[in-house]
Amino acid sequence: MMSVTKQEIIRSAFQLFKKKGFLATSIQEIAEDCSIAKGSVYKYFPSKEDLFCQVFDECQTAYFDQAEHLKKTETGTPKEGLVKQIVFRYQYFIEFNRILVEFTELPITQDAAFHPLRNHVRGRMMEWHKAWLLEVYGSQIEPFLWDLLFIYRAILKDYLLRILYEVKPLSIEDTAWFIVDKLDALAAHMKREGSKALLGQSSYDAFIHMGSEDWRRDRGQAAEELLGRVTAALEVWPSGSVRRKDLQEVIHLLGAEIAQPQLKRPLIQALCAFLEQEQELKSLVIQLKQIVLSERD
């Protein structure tokens, strides 16, 4: 039996994950590809999840290395540079789709080792996007930078899925120019109209630390705030004291249930459904329910 290094196992796993994806690839296949026993893989990686984390990290690192090189060798305008970055991003993510895209629907997203890695990559990607937006549009976008950043990220993500899964594939180059053209229009409009920013640094921080202890604490505080706003809305309730009393009792029950370490999800959903019947409370209650139930998933 040949002696195999850790890096050779990673290289084999990289190719198999790239070809077949996380779920369809087994440790046995990786071992066979390396001509070693299955147990030899576990000497380096306690689980398939740990091995995937290593592959995912190397794949993302390679992406940023190549993106940085592309930026350094760019000779056109900043806008042309951004277009080329989008084209490269789509080309790369299509090639490594099974590693960089498909994982979002898999249980590995909840893995203790993978979660902080994903947050690290998410933060690095957002910093990269932010730097490019400032490079192209300058300080004029600073008043609404965070909103534009999240809009840009959402557009990139959605059009990647369109490119991957549309029956009639979109042109990568046309899509990149389309996105930048719409960013131009959006940035100009927000500046001209003096658009009030909805998002700020705190929204960005919460996004890149999603799932951390700080994030969970902030989510708990957000739930308390929303519950308080629902309660305050009832203080000026226009529909009569009897109905208001019923709603206050339901809110009291909901608050008590939210405070429990183990949630009774059907009960919370039922209490929220009762409150959502009131149009004045509906949006607040939907937000509260989403925060409370997703926090404990």
Automatic annotation (TrEMBL):
Stored InterPro entries: DNA-bd_HTH_TetR-type_CS, Homeodomain-like_sf, HTH-type_Tx_Regulator, HTH_TetR
Gene3D superfamilies, per database record: Tetracycline Repressor, domain 2
DNA-binding region residue numbers: 26-45
GO molecular function ontology, one term from the record: DNA binding
Organism: Paenibacillus durus
Keyword check for DNA damage: no
Highest taxon listed in the record's lineage: Bacteria
Domain HTH tetR-type, residue spans: 3-63
Keywords: DNA-binding
TM helices/strands, residue ranges: none
Protein name: HTH tetR-type domain-containing protein
PROSITE patterns recorded: HTH_TETR_1, HTH_TETR_2
